[in-house]
Each structure stands twice: as structure tokens, then as C-alpha cells.
Design a protein that fits this description.
The protein is 13% helix and 27% strand. The chain is built from 5 helices and 11 strands; from the N terminus they run H-E-E-E-E-H-H-E-E-E-H-E-E-E-E-H. The longest helix has 9 residues.
Length: 250
């Protein structure tokens, strides 16, 4: 049976100092943990090894307290043992170790980091677990990205905050939706949109479950306003939408 958490206190508690490739970061708070452990029967169809990941609020360690703090999000990916092998000897679990793991979140952030409409990837580091790790020799990956400024436009159920704004603001936001960067959340919603009214920037966030856009998904179409719940259509748009926007609510 999987434990309630795969991470030790030394890996997660506030005040823990983490040295990555570029900077030193201090954990302020653990925000969540996701368990993606695999059982033996999952392995043939899985895209990679089982893992757990935790997201943290972190702060960049600076040389002087007079400097305003710089906060960011950090996610730690940790290889975990195949279900049913948790109690096996370390040497047995070590045979599962791999460094062949590349999460879509890292891929998307790297691809879009200079786009100006996604969080900037600030730091990362690959390491191997020690002999006391849950999979000795298995991967540990940490990535740190920018907390973009602005107002999140909704939640997983839709762009609820967006629809509380006045019509003129909604029109401006819709005009920014076509600046997508080739990756998008698996489920489009206002939860993955942050609007910065000061700069007029619409940010795309939430890369953990992102997918790579292909074909028609990369070409701009008004149907994306409906897909992101920034417009409402009285009729379904897929498949065979004829391009009509009659009856749409703006």
C-alpha cells in the first residue's frame, strides 16, 4: 500500500533549503502532492515510470534582507516503486531506477518560456535518489517557475471570474487568446488563464496536465473562445461547425 506521502520531512518542510542549477530556494509552504504510482499491469501501457510530485511555494535566497523577496512555484518529481514492491529490500527496488523521465510540464515550460504569455522557467535540477530513497538511484527532478502577476479568470468548472467583468474588459481579454504557445491544458478553462490588466497580458498557466497542440489545434479559430468559456454558443461547435457565430453570448 502506498504511503500518505512519498516525501520525507527534510524534502518538504518550510525552511528547507534547495540548491538548484542557477539559484538557491527556500521552501515556504507545501501546496499539494499527487501520486502517480504504477502497478505491474500498468507498466506495458504507461508512458514512463511511476512517480509522485509535490508543488511548493518557494522563495529565492538573496544576499540581503533589504532586497524584496522573490517567490515562485517549485514542483518536485520523485520516482516511486511499483505497487506491491514498497517493502522490498532497497537493492531490489534499486533495479527499478531510471533517469528516463521527462514530464510534459517541463517540456511545455521550456518550449514557451520566452513567449511572454506563460510563466518563465527559472530553474531546474536532475538528481538521483540516495541509498535511503524510495527507489535508490531513481530520479528526482525539481523545476521552478514564475508566479505570473494578475487575476485568475476562473476554476476547473469554467471562466467564472471572466463573466463578472464588464463587456469591454471581456472583449480585450478575448482579443489576447490567440497568443497561444503550442501547449495547452488538457481541459481548457479560466483556471488556466491569468489576466494582468496593468500590462494587458493574458497568461496561460497550469502546465502540469498540458498537451501539445497539433494540426488544427495550432491554428486560430473563434471556436477557441467557446472552448475556453470566453464566449457561449447555443449549439455545440464540434464536429462540423460551419463557422456561424449567430446567437453567441459575448
Amino acid at each position: 500500500m502506498a504511503p500518505k506521502t512519498w516525501f520525507t520531512k527534510a524534502q518538504t518542510q518550510p525552511g528547507t533549503v534547495i540548491q538548484l542549477e542557477k539559484h538557491t530556494w527556500v521552501i515556504k509552504e507545501k501546496l499539494n502532492e499527487i501520486n502517480q504510482q504504477l502497478d505491474e499491469e500498468d507498466i506495458p501501457i504507461a508512458n514512463g515510470p511511476g512517480y509522485a510530485c509535490a508543488r511548493f511555494l518557494v522563495e529565492k535566497e538573496l544576499p540581503t534582507t533589504a532586497t524584496p523577496p522573490i517567490q515562485a512555484f517549485m514542483r518536485t518529481y520523485l520516482q516511486v516503486p511499483i505497487g506491491g514492491t514498497e517493502a522490498d529490500p532497497p537493492a531490489t527496488r534499486a533495479r527499478q531506477a531510471t533517469m528516463e523521465f521527462y514530464p510534459r510540464e517541463l517540456e511545455g515550460l521550456q518550449r514557451c518560456t520566452t513567449s511572454g504569455v506563460t510563466p518563465v522557467l527559472w530553474d531546474q535540477k536532475w538528481e538521483r535518489q540516495g541509498e535511503e530513497g524510495v527507489v535508490p538511484g531513481g530520479f528526482i527532478l525539481r523545476i521552478v517557475w514564475e508566479i505570473v502577476p494578475g487575476m485568475r479568470l476562473g476554476d476547473v468548472y469554467g471562466s467564472t471570474v471572466f463573466w463578472t467583468l464588464d463587456e469591454k474588459k471581456r472583449e480585450v481579454i478575448r482579443g489576447n487568446l490567440n497568443r497561444r504557445g503550442g501547449y495547452q491544458p488538457a481541459i481548457a478553462s479560466g483556471k488556466s488563464l491569468v489576466w494582468n490588466s496593468d500590462t494587458g497580458t493574458l497568461y496561460f498557466v497550469g502546465f502540469f496536465d498540458c498537451i501539445k497542440a497539433r494540426g488544427d489545434e495550432q491554428r486560430w479559430s473563434p471556436k477557441w473562445w467557446v472552448a475556453w468559456n470566453l464566449a457561449k454558443s447555443p449549439n455545440p461547435l464540434w464536429p462540423g461547425w460551419d463557422g456561424s457565430m449567430e446567437g453567441w453570448i459575448w
